[in-house]
Write a structure and sequence with these properties.
- The chain has three helices and five strands; from the N terminus they run ββββαβαα.
- The protein has one domain: Aminopeptidase, CATH 3.40.630.30.
- It has a five-stranded mixed beta sheet.
- It is an alpha+beta fold.
Length: 100
Amino acid sequence: MVDSLINLETKRASFNLTIENTRCTLEFSIENDTMDIRSVRVPESVGGRGLAGQLTRHALDWAQTQTLKVIPTCPYVASWVQRHPEFLPIIVESSRDRLG
């Protein structure tokens, strides 16, 4: 688990992780106590290691501690939440319909 290596960049509204000199990023915005997770990017050179999932879990855990609701705009994050229903309570109700 690389959770301790994930950094929050508030100015860029992103969580970042650098593995083997390669930057992986989860980008979001916050408005009215709602976090909109827009994208997760993991370059191919470090793909297949579960890094996108770790970034996603870290962001959702952080959102919980900040008492934020989440809109999973990013298709990867939406599918990840489907596989991890323990995070459904923090998903904005109107977004839950998309998750099936």
